[in-house]
Amino acid sequence: MVLVSFPPLLGHEILTVLQCGVTTLAGEIACFFAFKYACTFRGKTFETNLNIEYGALAHVVRQGGLLIVLVMRYSVSPRTVLSTAMFSTVGVSPHIFLAAAFLSVPKSFVPVLYWIYRKMEQAKEAYIYSRRNATQAKAAKECIE
Fold this sequence. Notes:
Helices cover 81% and strands 0% of the residues. By secondary structure, it is an all-alpha fold. It folds into two domains: 3-103, no CATH class; 106-145. Helix 1 (12-50) crosses helix 2 (52-64), helix 1 packs across helix 5 and helix 3 packs antiparallel against helix 4. The chain crosses the membrane at residues 14-35, 56-76, 96-117. Keywords: Membrane, Transmembrane, Transmembrane helix.
């Protein structure tokens, strides 16, 4: 990574994006297994004894497979960490979770890109104004000479 960071070498941006995606994926997998082994009993109790809506959602997730897990991971609500905890405690297969987590990694880049584009739109008027002033100053300097 250090060698690729030097300006003559290309590919730093791609490596950074891949590293961020791999790190995010590793964190999601760790969270999945932590909840799976620490909270499965509590999740089953919550599902069967306390909350009908959670039980129905758990049933839908178990029956829906990859499509339901992927749709929920792309959804705004419930948040990814909460859905990861639920997937692990209701019995979603680690293979299905891993596939959905891998396919939903690009979701984390969308808000960043949206924020950058919004900032660009906000700065566009000031940037155009400063370029216009620089061009006029250059033209005035050439006219004087």
